[in-house]
Write a structure and sequence with these properties.
The complex is a heterotrimer of chains A (85), B (327) and C (397).
Chain A lengths: L2 H15 L14 H4 L4 H15 L14 H16 L1
Helix pairs in contact in A: 1-3, 1-4
Chain B lengths: L2 E4 H15 L3 E5 L15 H5 L4 E3 L4 H13 L3 E8 L7 H8 L2 H4 L9 E6 L14 H5 L5 E3 L4 H13 L4 E6 L6 E4 L12 E4 L4 E5 L3 H14 L4 E5 L2 E3 L3 H11 L2 E8 L4 H13 L8 E5 L8 H7 L3 H11 L4
Parallel strand pairs in B: 2-3, 2-4, 4-5, 5-7, 6-7, 10-11, 10-13, 13-14
Antiparallel strand pairs in B: 1-8, 6-12, 9-11
Helix pairs in contact in B: 1-7, 3-4, 8-12, 9-10
Chain C lengths: L1 E4 L9 E7 L6 E2 L4 E7 L2 E6 L4 E6 L6 E3 L3 E6 L33 H4 L7 H9 L18 H12 L18 H18 L2 E9 L1 H12 L9 H15 L5 E4 L2 E4 L5 E3 L1 E2 L5 E2 L2 E2 L7 H17 L4 H5 L3 E5 L18 E5 L3 E7 L2 E15 L5 H16 L5
Parallel strand pairs in C: 12-16, 16-17
Antiparallel strand pairs in C: 1-8, 2-4, 2-7, 3-6, 4-5, 6-8, 9-19, 10-11, 12-15, 13-14, 17-19, 18-19
Classes of the chains: A mainly alpha (85), B alpha/beta (327), C alpha+beta (397).
């Protein structure tokens, strides 16, 4: 899966979690929890869909690595490629 | 006395105990001495205590109950037996106009520590002049206390507590209970005469009753349990003053109440308790209140009609099922 | 043939705006079906129908603002209901009987408001305490009467309503209710500050044990089963309310009515502004995973703009928790007619003295605002301490 494909999946899911936010203007470096007003439960929902859709289970200790869109893309790429190798 | 005994034995044990404890106590009534009591309650007591303390009286309820009230006024502790509640109407004047009023009318200077025992209830084919349940007539009167022991322990223990009470106490013994067997403790133990007793704990409805109907209610509760209805059975024990606290606490828990009373339906003790429940527990109620009482006829002589006139286990079960929504 | 009318979703509601029809002419509806979304001051609320039939015609148009009781649709083949719809004018006076004498005032209960319904006093009281509309219920008692257990079951069912998986619900209605909501919050809070003699207490304590326990518990679980700290707060508060009944209930008609059940309102911010505090019913009886499930369900639905009237009025006490990325503490305002609200700040790492040594520790600041007409500070302090104590033993929650 390319980074672009992965980005499309994440934006799709984030769009469901925060339907009122315009994702087109989302800065990849910004803190998703601020930009999308995700509380702890909504963020947990995000982690849940990553598990359901991509099969990546993110431990709590790794949460901070996924606070931005770019961080999340890096993290997922790493884990998806680890799994292939 | 211990082991297997009858309710009759229990009443007798209570009387013996009172006579032994307090020389001011004596028993009087129709046929209580030589004959041993019309229901054989006082059998043997004449031999043991002598004619001074076990006194046969003429057939004159008004006369001997009046004498008992006078004796109490003079410092004695009389136990007066009236053969049945029907006959007690001849001495109702003494009980209502003298026993119940003298403390009030003397400004508290005199008290009447008399105990009047009487049999009540039907089921022995004694016909309409010997079978009625007029407990509520007495429970209506301020100034007296009214008891209805339904167990051996109460039959034995309530008497002494009643004697110690400085005011008149009327005790009703249901005629169908005299032959009931059970075990009695070796020693006579006075029991409280203030509280109702929960004879069977349950969560679905409260069956409130007293006297001879208690055991019908217990049988009904057992039948209901098989149908998945968990009934609580309350034995009132004291009919005046009523223990509202126990009744209301139970009804608030179960939210449903069924009253079972061998008295006639109109103006019954069941009616009074229903009124109190509505006054005190209205917002806890989950179903209409119900009651099973005697049919409003003079109690008939023929067995099948007598049975039909009285509260029976099947009618109690049916009434309970109805207020449970016929589950 | 009957009319489906604009329901009353609270005593203060006069009108509602139809946002969306979820049924169309020809659709069959059953009692309890959600048929439309109506915007009120409390936000968009799904409204249910309480009779069955076929939608013959939609009368109200999307966007229309209609007073309570206005016809919204015509239902064909419906059982003529002897039961008046909420908001409908009082039923016709029965011909043979004169108008009933005024019913004794016992708060504003079902007895007066829902005269045509066969329900026991106990059921009416429970329904009134929890603002349950008896019309929504089916009776299982004598002659089909609604009895206590029917209301109880309904409350349990309401507490168990399944979560719509995140994202599956349609996009929320336009946010034009925002101003109305701000107005409603303002009016309620102004009333609370004006009428309720608040007293405030604060307690800061070590929160390490709870957080460590959560990390350990969550480490073994997939994301969909992990717990957030708020779960512990809800449960600890609910359990403490059992011991301290004077913080759980309502101030009504000049006196306090303790509630039998503990329904914890949880303040949830609406993205973009506004706030609601829907209740987790009987939170004291739920295991932590169940509390979490309820919390997640509420957050998801608040976010999607979909919650029901009954959820907004059932709370007996409220928790306002700032979450993990906010400030240290808050001084909340009681949500009337409740009598207490507990505030939880963000856990803060700070130097702490433990056994005579300065150590780094995560601490939590809990605050309590309570009603002085019902309790005093001494009692409040014990209540707050009881919540803190429960949080020291998360494994027992």
């Amino acid at each position: 899966m390319t980074r672009d494909e992965l980005r499309r999946i994440l934006l799709d899911e984030l769009g469901r979690l925060a339907p009122e936010v315009d994702l087109a203007s989302l800065d990849e470096q910004s803190d998703l929890r601020e930009a999308l007003e995700l509380d702890s439960i909504s963020f947990l929902n995000f982690m849940t869909v990553l598990d359901k859709r991509l099969g990546v289970v993110v431990p709590e200790a790794d949460y901070p690595m996924l606070y931005s869109l770019s961080g999340a893309l890096d993290y997922l790429e790493r884990h998806l490629s680890d799994r292939r190798s | 006395m211990s082991g297997t005994a009858t309710y009759r034995d229990a009443v007798r044990a209570g009387i013996r105990d009172a006579l032994i404890r307090d020389p001011r106590c004596f028993l009087m009534g129709e046929d209580v001495g030589r004959y041993g009591g019309c229901y054989a309650v006082s059998k043997g007591l004449l031999d043991e205590f002598g004619p001074e303390r076990i006194r046969d009286t003429p057939l004159s309820e008004s006369g001997f109950v009046g004498a008992g009230i006078g004796a109490a006024l003079g410092g004695m502790r009389p136990i007066v037996e009236v053969m049945t509640v029907n006959f007690s109407l001849l001495c109702l004047d003494q009980i209502l106009n003298n026993a119940a009023t003298i403390r009030h009318m003397s400004g508290g200077q005199f008290s009447i520590p008399v105990v009047i025992r009487m049999a009540s209830g039907a089921g022995r084919q004694l016909a309409a002049q010997h079978s009625h349940s007029l407990e509520v007539w007495y429970a209506h009167i301020p100034g007296i206390r009214v008891l209805a022991p339904a167990t051996l322990e109460d039959a034995q223990g309530m008497l002494w507590t009643a004697i110690v009470d400085p005011d008149p106490v009327v005790i009703f013994e249901n005629v169908m209970l005299y032959n009931m067997t059970g075990s009695l403790p070796a020693e006579v133990r006075p029991v409280d005469i203030d509280k109702a007793a929960i004879r069977r704990a349950g969560t679905d409805l409260s069956i409130v009753t007293y006297g001879g109907s208690l055991w019908k209610c217990m049988a009904a509760a057992a039948a209901l349990a098989e149908a998945g209805i968990d009934a609580e059975v309350i034995d009132l024990r004291t009919l005046r003053p009523l223990d509202d606290e126990t009744i209301m606490a139970s009804v608030r828990r179960t939210r449903r109440a069924l009253l079972v009373d061998e008295g006639w339906r109109s103006g019954s003790l069941a009616a009074e308790i229903m009124a109190r429940i509505v006054e005190q527990c209205f917002w806890s109620l989950d179903a209409p209140l119900a009651r099973v009482c005697s049919e409003e006829v003079p109690i008939p002589y023929p067995k099948h009609l007598e049975d039909a006139a009285l509260p029976q286990v099947s009618a109690i079960v049916e009434a309970a099922r109805r207020i449970m929504g016929a589950r | 043939m009957s009319e489906f009318r604009m329901p009353s979703l609270g005593a203060d509601m006069e009108a509602g705006t139809l946002v969306e029809w979820l049924k169309k002419p020809g659709d069959r509806v059953a009692p309890g079906d959600v048929v439309a979304v109506v915007e009120t001051q409390k936000g968009a609320i799904e409204i249910e129908i309480f009779e069955g039939g076929i939608i013959e015609r939609l009368i109200a148009k999307v966007g229309e603002t209609l007073p309570v009781g206005s016809p919204l649709a015509i239902i064909a083949g419906s059982q003529p209901s002897s039961v008046p719809q909420a908001g409908q004018t009082a039923p016709e006076v029965e011909p043979e009987r004169p108008a009933p004498p005024p019913v004794e005032t016992v708060t504003e209960t079902a007895a007066t408001a829902q005269r045509g319904i066969r329900a026991s006093p106990a059921a009416r009281k429970l329904a009134a305490d929890h603002h349950v509309d008896l019309e929504a219920l089916t009776g299982s008692g004598p002659e089909g009467a609604i009895v206590y257990v029917d209301v109880e079951n309904w409350l349990h069912a309401a507490a168990r309503q399944p979560a719509s998986p995140p994202g599956t619900s349609p996009p929320p209605p336009a946010r034009r209710g925002r101003e109305a909501m701000r107005e409603a919050i303002g009016a309620t809070m102004a009333r609370a500050k004006r009428e309720i003699p608040h007293y405030y207490l604060q307690h800061t304590f070590e929160f390490d044990r709870a957080l460590d326990w959560l990390s350990r518990t969550n480490a073994a679980l997939g994301p969909d089963r992990r717990l957030v700290p708020g779960t512990l707060l809800v449960k600890a508060l609910a359990l403490a309310c059992r011991e301290f009944a004077d913080f759980n209930g309502y101030w009504r008609d000049g006196h306090f009515e303790a509630s039998q059940s503990v329904n914890v309102g949880t303040a949830i911010a609406i993205p973009g502004g506004g706030l609601v505090a829907p209740a987790i019913m009987e939170a004291d009886r739920l295991e932590l995973p169940a509390v979490m499930e309820r919390l997640r369900d509420l957050v998801n639905r608040v976010r999607a703009g979909r919650y029901r009237g009954s959820e907004l009025t059932g709370a007996t006490v409220t928790l306002s928790s700032l979450g993990e990325r906010s400030v240290e503490g808050l001084w909340p305002i009681i949500n009337p007619p409740q009598v207490a609200i507990v505030g939880a700040g963000t856990p803060v790492e700070r130097p702490w003295i433990r056994d005579g040594r300065v150590v780094p520790a995560a601490t939590l600041m809990l605050t309590l605002a309570a009603d002085h007409r019902v309790s005093d500070g001494h009692r409040g302090a014990r209540f707050l301490a009881a919540i803190a104590a429960k949080l020291q033993e998360p494994e027992k929650l």
